[in-house]
Design goal:
Elements: H1 4-38, H2 49-61, H3 67-80
Helix pairs in contact: 2-3
Length: about 80
């Protein structure tokens, strides 16, 4: 009389596909975050020590820091450089 079978079944199918779509979106967001953390250069984040030395040279060339400060910071950076 009320035809409950078809109506309830269509809601269940719609709910299932909405749930699947939500899982796909969550997975995609998680993958983006995972790969951005794995490759910090993609974020424009941390600089390596060679980039820090280049930046220090640029600041010295522009006259932003004194010769004494340049030499002191260069010694510190070279001391922390593990690639040498």
């Amino acid at each position: 009389m009320w035809n409950y079978g078809m109506h309830n079944g269509s809601w269940a199918i719609m709910f299932f596909w909405a749930f699947v779509l939500l899982l796909i979106i969550i997975l995609a967001v998680w993958l983006v975050i995972y790969f951005m953390r794995k490759n910090p250069s993609a974020e424009g984040g941390s600089r390596s020590s060679s980039n820090a030395v280049d930046l220090l040279k640029e600041r010295y060339a522009r006259g932003e820091i004194s010769t004494e400060e340049y030499r002191e910071r260069l010694r510190e950076l070279e001391g922390y450089d593990t690639s040498k």
